[in-house]
Amino acid sequence: MHILKHATPACAALLLLVCGCGAGGPLTPEEAFTQLKRAYASADAPALMDLLSGRSRKNIDLIIAEMRQLDGGQAKAISRQLGVPEDRLRSLTPVEYLALQLELSKRYGEDTAMQATAHGIIGTDVKDGRAVVRVDNGMDLIFVKEGPYWKYEME
């Protein structure tokens, strides 16, 4: 009976530890590439956002801030060129920005990362928390280690 008193909290702690570790992120560059491939294939903007490095997220924030600062003529021209309502361009969140980027990439087929993730990995070079994943169409994708997880460095 005395053993059961101590075993139950220990089992609960072990269960929390095991369940909590699975949702953290990719632990290898190859795993990050596989998740990136899935996100692009399914046009899953929230999943793509989760895979982005801190630097990539900051760059998206800067792009969004610049779009909000466009004058009327610039915003109209970009809106017309992209076929996206002007008010949508001015109110994008980071995830909505990525969703728009995925939408436009499918429409125009000009996203190099999307093209690269359609291929298989032929090699990975890792040095100092940075990984270059080479794919069989000749492209390279960069991943960086942030804490224990690997994140995609969108360029």
Give the key terms.
single chain, 155 residues, alpha+beta, 4-stranded antiparallel sheet, 8 helices, 15% strand, globular, disordered N terminus
Q: Low-confidence parts, pLDDT < 50 over ≥5 residues? A: 1-22
Task: Bin the helical content.
Answer: 55-70%
Strand content: 15-25%
Count up the helices. Answer: 8
The general outline is globular
- Please state the average pLDDT score: 83
Order of helices and strands: HHHHHHHHEEEE
- Give the biggest beta sheet: 4 strands, antiparallel
Question: What is the oligomer described by this structure?
Answer: single chain
Pairing-aware structural class of the strands and helices?
alpha+beta
Q: Please count the beta strands (DSSP E, at least 2 residues each).
A: 4
| Estimated radius of gyration | 20 Å
Strand order of the biggest β-sheet:
1-2-3-4
Question: What gap, in angstroms, lies between the N and C termini?
Answer: 60 Å
